[in-house]
Specification:
Bound molecules: the ligand CCCCCCCCCCCCC/C=C/[C@@H](O)[C@H](COP(=O)(O)O)NC(=O)CCCCCCCCCCCCCCC
GO biological process, one term: negative regulation of interleukin-1 beta production
Number of strands: 0
Number of domains: 1
Organism: Pelodiscus sinensis
Helix content: 55-70%
Order of helices and strands: HHHHHHHHH
Shape: globular
CATH class: Mainly Alpha
InterPro entries: GLTP_sf, Glycolipid_transfer_prot_dom
Catalytic activity: N-(9Z-octadecenoyl)-sphing-4-enine-1-phosphate(in) = N-(9Z-octadecenoyl)-sphing-4-enine-1-phosphate(out); N-(hexadecanoyl)-sphing-4-enine-1-phosphate(in) = N-(hexadecanoyl)-sphing-4-enine-1-phosphate(out)
Family: Belongs to the GLTP family.
Distance between the termini: 38 Å
Radius of gyration: 17 Å
Number of helices: 9
Length: 214
C-alpha cells in the first residue's frame, strides 16, 4: 500500500471514533462518518471481492453526508439531535419503508449495527494468537452481529469474501502504525471509545424503540 495522503492509517480512524464523543454523551455525526470513510479506504485495498460491501457502506455514508450538507445540517450534528428532529417531524418510516425510505435514523442504524461487528472484530484481532486466521476472527464477529440482519445471499457472499483476508499479523502490519504489537496496543487504547459510542447509540435507539427500523 502506498504511503500517499490517502493511505489507510489505523490511528486516524481510531482518533475519529474517539472524537465522536461529546461531553454530554452526545455522539457527533461528522467524526463518525470520517471514521467509516477511513475504514472503507482500507477495505478497498483488500480487493474487489469486498466492493459490494464498500458500495453499500458508501451509499449510506453519502445519505448522511447529504443531510449534513442540507439546510437542516444543524439537526444532524449529533445522533441525539437527528433522532429528536426526525421523530418530531414524522420523518421516519417506523413500520415499513414508504415515504421516508432513507431517513437519517434508519441509515445510521445500519452503520451502528456494523459498528458492533467492528468492535468485535477489532477485539478478536487484539486478543488473537499471532498466527490466527483473520477470516475466522472476521466471520465469528460477523455471525455474532451483522449476520442476524442479513438475508442468506448476503451472508454467503460475505463469508466467501472473508476467505481472502491475510493472517492476523500481516493484517495488523497493514494498518500503518508500526509493528503488530504496536497496532494491538493502539487497539487496546481505542476500543473503549468505540464501545462507548456503540453503547450510547444503542441506548438511545432502544429508548425510542428504533432498533428494528425497516
Ligand atoms: C476486514 C474485512 C471486512 C469485512 C466487512 C464485514 C462486514 C460485512 C458486511 C456485509 C454487508 C454486505 C453489503 C450489503 C448490505 C446491506 O444489505 C445491509 C442492509 O442495508 P439495507 O437495509 O439498506 O438493505 N447493509 C448493512 O448492513 C451495512 C453494512 C455496512 C458494512 C460496513 C463494513 C465496513 C468494513 C470496513 C472494514 C475495515 C476493517 C479495518 C479494520 C481496522
Amino acid at each position: 500500500m502506498a504511503d500517499g495522503a490517502d493511505a489507510f492509517c489505523l490511528r486516524e480512524v481510531l482518533v475519529a471514533f474517539t472524537a465522536c464523543l461529546g461531553e454530554q454523551r452526545e455522539v457527533r455525526v461528522d467524526p463518525y462518518l470520517a471514521g467509516w470513510k477511513g475504514l472503507i479506504r482500507f477495505l478497498n485495498t483488500l480487493g474487489t471481492v469486498f466492493s459490494f460491501i464498500s458500495k453499500d457502506a458508501v451509499t449510506k455514508i453519502q445519505i448522511l453526508e447529504n443531510y449534513r450538507n442540507s439546510d437542516q445540517r444543524e439537526k444532524y450534528l449529533t445522533v441525539q439531535s437527528m433522532v429528536e428532529y426526525e421523530l418530531a417531524n414524522g420523518l421516519v418510516d417506523l413500520k415499513k419503508r414508504s415515504e421516508h425510505p432513507d431517513s437519517g435514523c434508519r441509515t445510521f442504524l445500519r452503520l451502528h449495527r456494523a459498528l458492533r461487528w467492528l468492535q468485535m472484530f477489532l477485539e478478536g484481532l487484539r486478543t488473537g494468537e499471532e498466527d490466527s486466521k483473520t477470516s475466522v476472527i472476521c466471520s465469528e464477529a460477523y455471525n455474532a452481529s451483522l449476520a442476524n440482519y442479513h438475508p442468506w445471499i448476503i451472508r454467503k457472499a460475505a463469508t466467501v469474501a472473508f476467505y481472502v483476508l491475510p493472517t492476523r499479523n500481516t493484517f495488523l502490519e497493514n494498518m500503518n502504525v508500526g509493528t503488530a504489537d504496536e497496532a494491538v496496543a493502539m487497539l487496546g487504547d481505542a476500543l473503549p471509545f468505540i464501545c462507548k459510542v456503540y453503547d450510547i447509540t444503542e441506548e438511545l435507539y432502544a429508548q425510542h424503540k428504533l432498533l428494528d427500523l425497516p
